[in-house]
Amino acid sequence: MSEQSHVVVVGAGAFGTALATVVAETGESRVTLLARRAETVAAIVASCRNEAVLPGITLSASLEATLDRAVLEDASVVLFAMPSQAQREAARELAGHLPDGAAVVICAKGMEKASGRLLTDVLEEELPRRHVAVLSGPGFAADIARGLPTAMVIAASTLERAADLAHVLSGPTFRLYPSVDRIGVQLGGALKNVLAIACGIVEGAGLGDSARAALISRGLAEMSRFVAAHGGDAATVTGLSGLGDLVLTGTSHQSRNLRFGIALGRQGNAEGWAGELVEGAFAAGVASKIAAERNISMPITDAVAAIIDGRLALATAIGQLMSRPITQEF
């Protein structure tokens, strides 16, 4: 892949903006942020700021911003940085502008709610003749944009392609590790959001740090079973896109999934939640349904889905989890 790659980031939310500025800061590629709102573009051009999503952070001076989708036509790498449930629609809208052979990198953590499919499957269906990869792992947008040390994973269909993308997108403070396990990387990113909600429930209900540690450990076991059942490598969940991401989002109040879980733990239901989009709330129901269909044991995920849907009281869920049959850990 050429050192002068044109990288286009689609989606000027916090994560998309952060990725765009950290890649632009390397100076190795031309980087363009494709936004939907004229005021976002005007602010970035005038002040190198996107205050609405990254307040107080100055973006790279070399970062370009535009509303014009034609910018995609010479892109070699395109980062899809919109929420998981918007990925299919975005692919359909932009397909006519994306050149054949371009690498399209999914930068969302979830599964398609309507179909239960992996986002790589969704984009490969909508964008044939492009190379679909996925970026995931522990990285908050504000930390990335500020240039704080961050390590994540990029998975592609071949190790060579993943390594090429890692070299194009990595910089002094942003390191990507290449992988070929797109299944494991995606499912780790989706399920850690569900488990982060569970961690928030533990915190909100005042169940203690010991309960959180137990939940993280047993949640990883659920994650590994789910990944293996889908043909991924169970070992992937012990890395950045599984354990690393779960530790981050299950312990830091920067995590919207954790904050949502705390609200659930305090009041026992999701009524009145008016916070930001919570990817884990979508993923919980999808994963629980698939687990039931494929006979995968996922009691924590099932409990989170049922609490969110109002089908299970918090106290009942805790009792059910603590009274499960005693078996060997592994």
UniProtKB/TrEMBL annotation:
A cellular component term, taken from the record's GO annotations: cytosol
Subcellular localization, as worded in the UniProt entry: Cytoplasm
E.C. no: 1.1.1.94
UniProt enzyme class: oxidoreductase
Chain residues that bind sn-glycerol 3-phosphate: K109, G137, K192, D245, S255, R256, N257
Catalytic activity from the UniProt record: sn-glycerol 3-phosphate + NADP(+) = dihydroxyacetone phosphate + NADPH + H(+); sn-glycerol 3-phosphate + NAD(+) = dihydroxyacetone phosphate + NADH + H(+)
Active site: K192
Keyword line: Cytoplasm, Lipid biosynthesis, Lipid metabolism, NAD, NADP, Nucleotide-binding, Oxidoreductase, Phospholipid biosynthesis, Phospholipid metabolism
Its biological purpose: Catalyzes the reduction of the glycolytic intermediate dihydroxyacetone phosphate (DHAP) to sn-glycerol 3-phosphate (G3P), the key precursor for phospholipid synthesis.
Protein's UniProt name: Glycerol-3-phosphate dehydrogenase [NAD(P)+]
